[in-house]
Protein 1
Amino acid sequence: MPRVVRVGARLMAGLATRGGWMLTILLAVAWLAGRGVSDRVVWSQWLRWIPTAALIGVLLLGLAAARAGPATRWRRRRTIVSVIALTVTLGHFALLEHRLLRRPPAAPDGMSLSVWHMGFRRTSDAMRTHTRTAARALFADITLLIDGHDIRGEIIDTRPDDTGSVIQGRFTLITRLPILEARTFIATDHFDVVQFRLDDGADGLVLLAVDLPSDPRLPRSELAGTLRRLLDETGVATPDIVAGDFNIPRGSHSIERVFPTLHHAYRDGGHGYAATYPRVYPLYHIDHLLLDAGWRATRYDIVDPGVGRHRAQRAWVVRAPPG
């Protein structure tokens, strides 16, 4: 091989190695900024949407780039840094973000809830059949369905005999608990919020159904502030449970801004890989089930209904003991 070709090949290999290393550093910094700043400002909300799985893939690329080239002190340092970063990220992914090692209880206590954003309006006959079947499989003590406008009546027709139902705005509620109220509090281009009051045989239960916009260009922090103001102005009762499609990743600042006193059911009873969208290859946990401090989840599952664009949520909740 001519000397000029060998020199050129080494130069290209060096550039590729440095390029892979720099890409790794840039994405790692962006991911950390997204988690640190969250969606408080517009630029950071885009970084907040970087999946940890993508960071793991780039870290593997960075490790390969770090191992390339001659055995120098710089290569050894890059390799050590890459291994440490990859190990920490894998630990965060497996133990904190997704709890891959946690085993759920086989027979959870409490009242069962299912929440599913069906996510379409017009369907073929085959899709209608699949959707009805999927909805029946999700029926629980409280079942909340979002959208599916032209098939909601068909789904209600298949509900268990011991349940009642109501359609309010974009939401369909099927429940074994007596329905005391179904009231739309907010219905705008950006927000749909419906309050359901149910008789749970104790102090009553307030379920707030929420659907927020999917346009990623909308500033999430501003939307959260506007929604919080509208909730305060319209006199919505303090909810026991908030459920729906937030189009905001779990753990984001904007969710806490709207509902600062609530916690995610995944915190109590979550296990395994936790992402709801897109359904086939989910990367983002944007459908949520939030609980007041007076409630806790004994188990929280994410279920693939086999149809639609979102995965469904299923949980079992109980009243938390005083104190």
Protein 2
Amino acid sequence: MKGSSGRLARRCPTFGGTGTTWPCGRPVLDAFVDCNAAEARLPAVRHASSEDLGWQSVLARTYSEKPHVEEFTTLPTPNLLVVVVTGGTYAIDSRRDGRWRSTVYRAGSAGVAAPGHTSTLRWQAIGRQPLTSLQVYLAPELFTGIRGDSDEAALTSLPDALALDDPVVSTITATLGWAVDAQASALYADSAAQFLAAHMVERHLTPRRVASGRGLGAKVLEDVIGYMHDNLAHDISLDELAAVARLSKHHFLRSFKTATGATPHAFLVEIRMQRASDLLRARNNTVSWVAAHCGYRSPSHFAAAFHRHHGRSPTAFRAEHALPRGD
């Protein structure tokens, strides 16, 4: 078509504040302040959004589109916009340099709009299936530091394409759509967004040698893991963990996996599940209480994650492993 013992105290990391708020009351980050105006131009109805989930570097929204749309022009934003079709089939045209270019969108098709670019579009549904899409805005900050400090210029070279044949882009973007429905954590969403941004740079910009980042030393790794433990009841973001390590998010993700063999998200889930199993052994701790103290928004999300990890529900686990009364 973005405390004590020498550890950082918990904070709410942002790319900057504006005085503007989402309808839910949460502040709009500078990176996404133009997205509402851009949305007002769309001949579509929004169904879901990540705006109240605390994600820092990505905004994801789902829409249903009108079956027939006459020519209109989008508004630019400072973000890279990735659009993935989730339902229906339609012939879509884009005008550039006075010429119309056409393609057919169907479920899984993807297009991208580069930062600062506008698109003049029109489309016509093929068949009767409703037209639905997922739109993902990536914050500009995600694209800096991927190939070095000078790569801020990459923002002006990102692809702008009506159709982008890249299954990785389609899959990761669709995963962010799932994350909206699942109310996934900021760490999960921001990690996926950072990978998507890195992929766009490495796959769709002119290849060149990538500078290798330094690994995580033992002290830095200890601080990062300690931060996870200290803030387990909160929605820990990728920004926070990278700040503890004093690395860019891209280099932190790579260095953390090299050091531990797991992504920060997977490592954090392991810690949450270990803490949950310890807390469930005490009979007086309710499942709701354990869920909240392990960083889950609701008992149902906690129960699903616990079952995936342990192969049984929290209640069944407690029945098997609870400490005797009086211990």
Protein 3
Amino acid sequence: MKNIKMPFANDKIKRQTYIYERLLNASKAKQRIGITQLAKECGVSTKTISRDLHDSLSQMGAIKVGKGWLLDEKLAKDSLQSQEKITLSVLDNLAKSVGEIFYHKAHNLLESISSQFASPIFTHFSTESLGEKELQNFALLESVINAKEQISFVFHSSEFRLEPLKLAFFDGFWYLLGFDITNPAQKIFKKFYLKDISQITRLNTHFEITQNIEQKLENANNVWFNLDEPYPVHLFIDKQIAKYFLRKPLKGQKTLGKYPDGSLEICLNITNEMEILPLICYYIPHIKVLSPDSIKDSARERIAQYLDEIS
């Protein structure tokens, strides 16, 4: 067994995945592993390992035999890798948030791959439910996007012709992104709320997407983005919230400096001030705009307007 290069003290999922693999290998070799040994390998306390085993991994087949631990015989013979098994459990939990119809379809599919859904993994994925019609539209849109094929559809009682680029999930809602070519003289980038789209028709006309457009779509942080040239925003992140920006960096986030007290200075590119203003307001007073002045001024105006309204 190779030594662990990095302890998993601060990453529960990686640590539990490692423990699961160790127990699985031990079971295949007709061996058991003690809590003290696992704690040493993972760089955590024996209490942490005990919690991992009793509260989580025991529900995935970890059992105590004497002074050691192993996996039961059924899981030891499972053809799935531990990361695959945990991934399937996460997907199954996420599917519950998309609605009963989607969950029923997804669960049956995932269950055909692995029956081990007595999982300790819990996910809370804040998203709207998709019904049968939305799922049909979703599948059709995915097909035309992959084929780079123009479509027509009805949105809020108006008919549009579109070069569909992406299906995007922002803040719990699904959107269709694309170039509106309804007016042949104009080509305008727009976003359409998925549930308000109907009567989708394939037009059998194909188009191309530039690498530049693809890159801009990949860097979008929320629904407020556009395809204009981005500009940098520099932020000071107080130590009290710095961990959130390290755990889950924003798209395109760069860390410019780490201060001794744990505070950060970060930079990210935006195309619309609304990509960043809600985040700034959410984290006040633990976040500060360093530049540009336009974002500073917009933040001040919003805060002043709010204070006036509640005074």
Protein 4
Amino acid sequence: MAMEARKIFKSGRGSYILTLPKSWIQNLGVREGDYVYLKTEKDKIIIFLREKKAKKAEFFCENLSFDAVVRRIIAHYLAGIDVMKIRITSEEQRRAIAFASDLLIGAEVLEDLGNEIELSIQIDPDKMSLEDISEKLFRVCHGMLLDLVGCLFNYRREVISSIITREDEVDRLHFLILRLAKENVFLRTFARTLERVADHIELMAESILNLGKSLELKFVEEIPHVFKSACMSFLKKDSNFAEEVLERIESLRRHLISHQRKLMDFKKEEIILVKAILDGFQRILAYSSDIAEIAINLAVFEKITE
């Protein structure tokens, strides 16, 4: 359907009137006196002919394992389903539903009939800011990385344990963004990348926990700052800043490679753990580079689509 330009008229003190083309009204079957529903998104006004109805889905778990049930629920959550009716055959599947409801923001068990459970997703996209959620995801992830580096110099078991626990919050925010962002490829990629960074931080924390002591790796102190800069270049859509970040990442990569040669200075039982930590930092730098490149792509995309 072709785009049309329409003039907005003022009506009284607090309202405005916008007329719609007659052909649109006829083609859509709208009649005088019908209600329409409006919402705003950034630089657009969207008109719905009817109030949005909850999306519902039913599925039978049959012989699905714990992990398979969780995956099935996550898939429905990401697809935008609001109400799931899930038929189960075992207590393990019931526990999987409970686990998934804790993992997914807004998920709540509304009804449990024994062999059928109704899971509802209580999320209002209009009251949520993707920008705020993305910044929160970044802050949680960055905080994990800062604490990890701190524990390399000052081993604290309770802080390392909290890092591992916080990875669950990253998963929750990551899934929420994937559900809400829909066709925003840049934001979805950013969220997925941060989720992978958090996975590596968790693995590194477990390695430090097993190592049971501090490590003198002075050059890694710069990595949380570079990661933060890469994320800020994306959130601020700053391509010039992203280019600076990419240069800093390359310098840190060379430091990491040179340090790999010193692995033989450690005891035999420590080498695998230290290598896992160094490999983790290598991956975080690679993901930081990916984020900076996404920032450049986003900045260019927004410029040419203005």
